[in-house]
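Researcher: Next sequence.
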Amino acid sequence: MSETFKAKIWKLDDDIDTDIVLPTEYLALKTVEDMKPYAFSPLRPELAAQIKPGDMIVAGKNFGCGSSREQAPEVVKALGVSCIVAQSFARIFFRNAINNGLLLIENPDLHDAVKEGDEALVTPGEKIVVNGKEFPIASLPENLMEILNAGGLVKAMRKRNGLD
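Model: Next structure:
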């Protein structure tokens, strides 16, 4: 997670709740793979099919508000999203995302400075560069980076306990 990567930006606004990320009616599907086509469908039905592995989401305030369903960050990760950068995240969504190995970055300025389709260079814990402009980002605590680098909480604990 410390290596710089390039990502295409998909831009969303404020208050993207978990019912937008993954509507309730699709929770009955058997796997997250089955749920993927319906991600963001209330807002933009075509978006899930357009996101490519490595792309990123840039959003406004309060991303992931609403219910605490773990499938919301799981489906975003399953789409191949490299990270979500938002002005702020709902607390439970933030922790669920980290526990599932999905990198979240808070930045107050990026959302208003980019447009959908821009390319970003992301150096986790340091900066994001878009259109020649640098946006500094804070690093996550070491314990959260351990979880992200392992691919999620369960994998991190298995590794820490010598099970993998």
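Model: Residues 5-160 form a domain with the Aconitase; domain 4 fold (CATH 3.20.19.10). The beta strands are 5-11, 56-59, 83-86, 103-106, 119-123, 127-130, 133-136.
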